[in-house]
Amino acid sequence: MSEKSTADRIDAPAVVAPPQHPAVAIWRSATADDVELIMDLVQAADRIDHPSWLTPREDVEETFESSWIDPIRDTILGLDAEGRAVAMGGVMVHPSRDHHLHAYFTGRVHPELRGRGIGRELMRWEHERALQALAELDSPLPAAIFVYAEETDVAARHLAERRGLREERWFSTMVRDLALEIPTIEQTMDVGASAIDIVVYDSSRKEAARLARNDAFRDHWGSLETPPERWSQFVDGPFLRPDLSWLAVEDDRIVAFALGSVNEEDWAVQGYSSVYIDLIGVTRDRRGRRLAPVVITALLRAARAAGLEKAVLDVDTESPTGANSLYGRLGFEPTERSVALVAHH
User: Fold this and answer.
1) Mind telling me which Pfam families this protein's record contains (predicted)?
2) 253-261, strands of its sheet edge to edge
3) Across-strand partners of 173?
4) Which helix (H) or strand (E) holds 299?
5) Range of the structural domain that residue 144 is part of
6) Closest-CA residue to 213 (of 198, 235, 182, 191)
7) What percent of the chain has pLDDT over 90?
8) Residues 141, 216 share a domain
């Protein structure tokens, strides 16, 4: 914790000037009425930036539904002379603000207009707004600004570095063919330990699963606790598949989990049907009992029984739990990579 507050130690502008570019006729805040415009832009950008998956409409809608985001101040939308959305930026300060402050920004420029300087102006706005948002919290807590980029998005990485962010952590997408043999894993039992049951997720365990997630990820890089509202958006959303989400339960407490979701819109661009494993974790007091591979293989079997062809996940390549090595042993193979660029304040 710093002796100075973010208001004192962060050099943030009092007013963030909107981007300026001759190819963009209007810059304004985005509203919920703009979702269709935004989706047209997002879909055009997705085909170039990450052709193996698509941004769900629900993710865009959450910008206007989340209590911790102020769309008037935290979004910017660029329209051309015909009213088409050609650029968009957004800033979010993580709603968990008890121990660290994390701000994130993301932006899109229509592929037809890239290479003209719009992205530079857009990222300038995003970065300045992120600095302003952290400074306004007037907090002594350590703060950081994050932007994530695909390895192939050299332009975005370069622009972020020009804004003072540095590449700090790499993440790998890994894919497993469900036609391959799925090993049988036996959990390791401690002497005198209670029996641990492996069960599917159901909504009655919603809060227990959130608490388990927060415990399991407390020592993971860049992770903050997930508050109830944000957790509800995930587990009550349209993509989580309870039948493909498995828990290890000990005395009614969740001690390990592998939660899977399905977005069928991804299948056309992937070329196969798949389950995405959103979260895998083991509470810190139950690590070392092989619970992670137990719940993962339960999920893999369920996905295969459901007729899906592959399982996909993303992993921190420097995970303190050695997760990337575990996934390799379970038959996952790395495909794409992304990087987190960070500025600490």
Assistant:
1) Acetyltransf_1
2) 26-28, 75-79, 85-93, 101-109, 143-150, 333-344, 166-177, 310-316, 274-282, 253-261, 246-250, 197-200
3) 314
4) helix 291-305
5) 6-164
6) 235
7) 89
8) no
pLDDT at 191 over 60: no
Closest CA to 230 of 73, 59, 74, 108: 59
Q: In the numeric block, which tokens belong to residue 340?
A: 């987190």
Counted domains in the chain: 2
pLDDT tens-place string over residues 75-118: 999 999 999 999 999 999 999 999 999 999 999 999 999 999 99
Q: Are residues 102 and 180 in the same domain?
A: no
Could you give the dihedral angle defined by the CA atoms of residues 254, 258, 264 and 268, in that order, rounded to the nearest 10 degrees? Answer: 170
| Structure-token match 């159901």, residue found | 202
Short-list 162, 171, 81, CA closest to 122: 162
The pLDDT of residue 160? 97
Question: What average pLDDT does this structure show over 333-343?
Answer: 96
